[in-house]
Design brief:
The protein is an alpha/beta fold. Helices cover 44% and strands 23% of the residues.
């Protein structure tokens, strides 16, 4: 069983780098990516990931506020 991960960062190069590292792990799968906190919340509802790797400083909804919303819905 894979550990499902969502990557969230407003810089694509960071998401690409993290994805590249995580793809080497056979027990982990990146199921989605987002470039802001609002999209991260939506994707968390859809995919129910085990882990969300998220930047703090992002447009639209920052990482701290997004994490709070995600944890309220999926503790």
């Amino acid at each position: 069983m894979s550990i499902n991960i969502i990557l969230v960062d407003d810089h694509k190069i960071i998401r690409d780098g993290l994805r590249s590292l995580l793809e080497k792990e056979t027990d982990m799968a990146v199921v989605a990516e987002a470039e802001n906190g609002r999209d991260a919340v939506k994707l968390s509802r859809k995919f129910a990931p085990d882990i969300v790797i998220m930047d703090i400083n992002m447009p639209d909804l920052n990482g701290v506020d997004a994490a709070t919303l995600i944890l309220e819905e999926s503790p």
